[in-house]
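Hi support team,

I'm opening this ticket because the web form for multi-chain structure prediction keeps timing out on my end. I have pasted the exact lines I submitted so you can reproduce it. The total is 227 residues across two entries, so I didn't expect it to be a heavy job. Is there a limit I'm missing, or should I split the entries? Thanks in advance, R.K.
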Amino acid sequence: GENVEQHPSTLSVQEGDSAVIKCTYSDSASNYFPWYKQELGKGPQLIIDIRSNVGEKKDQRIAVTLNKTAKHFSLHITETQPEDSAVYFCAATYNYGQNFVFGPGTRLSVLP
Amino acid sequence: EPEVTQTPSHQVTQMGQEVILRCVPISNHLYFYWYRQILGQKVEFLVSFYNNEISEKSEIFDDQFSVERPDGSNFTLKIRSTKLEDSAMYFCASSDFRGTADTQYFGPGTRLTVL
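Hello R.K., no limit was hit. The queue was backed up. Here is the completed structure from your submission:
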């Protein structure tokens, strides 16, 4: 089955700097890769996603890149703000809408 | 904006008791999911549900677990005889189409504490 690794497990950046979180997946059949942000005491909230037919997607300060050959995808947050502090989870799935396999999460701290 | 809701937010129960966790998915969604997250760990898939039947389930989802859509709006997860290791956050999610529009939207979760 699918296995998703995520690095780093914790990341601290200064406000205004960029943050990059990387995930690798094992199943080449996976074709949908969402990123979720989880704030303390809340459920995961989708922030961006990418499908296997696209190499990069951007939404304001957030971007995701996908390298299908290497089976990895990354989340890029530019101009970080304190409210970006949260745990970020990547996930992978195939056959659109199947259960997501989540990575272990990255705790991002943006220091003012 | 439509959202997934879950009740209760926190459930405390004694080991061996039955619990029912409730979810109201987004109204036009067709696919429903339960996930769990043990404290400090990653989110794990339990079960997916479509057209009034389970479409996929994980190894975690054993005979102690069941799901039901008792009416047009609710989606429930039942644990028949809770164990200490069932203590976790349980998240419900829904999506509108297993095709090109498949984003899963998560509810705020129910924290289950088994004593």
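A quick check on our side: Chain A touches chain B at residues 32, 34, 36, 42-46, 49, 89, 91, 95-105 (CB under 8 Å). Let us know if the file doesn't open in your viewer.
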